[in-house]
Amino acid sequence: MGRAFRTPRPRRHRWAACHERLIDALLTLARAESATSDLLPVDLAEVACSVLDQMDERCRRRNLRVRAHLDEAPVTGDPLLLEQMIGNFVDNAVKYNLDEGVLDVRTGTTAAGAFVGVGNDGATLAPHEIPVLFEPFRRLTDRVGSTRGSGLGLSIVRAVAHTHHGDAAAAPRTGGGLTVTVTLPCAR
């Protein structure tokens, strides 16, 4: 009697998923660095609220305390790119946060424009380390070699901000962690 052999099903290797995410990130970066064409009224508070809803399960799994203070922050821009931008830096803040840490998300307006800021608890960072975080494929030494990302998240954030005539900045938090803030011109 012959032995029955099963044809092995092709398994999707975990690296395939990583490559897909990398390609998506590179395409987003390229799109962010080109001129925006779909300029529509967007409230950064609504976008941040939507992103937080999407991240809710991940935050709960990590026992993160989410503090959101979302005041109106009207801008004119590409809604998809702005959602990707906020999604990237909220994703970073969740990914590099401490378990049971705090995730702060704020939106509003100042004399400089409309802003969205995201802060998290985490490793203590020196001020001289901050600029590296915005460079493509560059991560801090404690993050290099991890499977947590490609080093494009904050590069995309800055590229989208620049495309919308704004800027992105980051500052280390007292006690560890990081706050990233994007400021864009207010909608007229």
From TrEMBL:
Keywords: ATP-binding, Kinase, Nucleotide-binding, Plasmid, Transferase, Two-component regulatory system. GO terms for molecular function: ATP binding; phosphorelay response regulator activity; protein histidine kinase activity; protein kinase activator activity. Its EC number is 2.7.13.3. PROSITE patterns: HIS_KIN. It is an enzyme of class 2 (transferase). Residues 20-188 form the Histidine kinase domain. One of its GO terms (biological process) is osmosensory signaling via phosphorelay pathway. The keyword Transmembrane helix does not apply. Pfam families: HATPase_c. It catalyses: ATP + protein L-histidine = ADP + protein N-phospho-L-histidine. InterPro entries: BphY/WalK/GraS-like, HATPase_C_sf, HATPase_dom, His_kinase_dom, Sig_transdc_His_kin-like_C. This is Sensor-like histidine kinase SenX3. It comes from Streptomyces cadmiisoli. The lineage of its organism: Bacteria, Bacillati, Actinomycetota, Actinomycetes, Kitasatosporales.
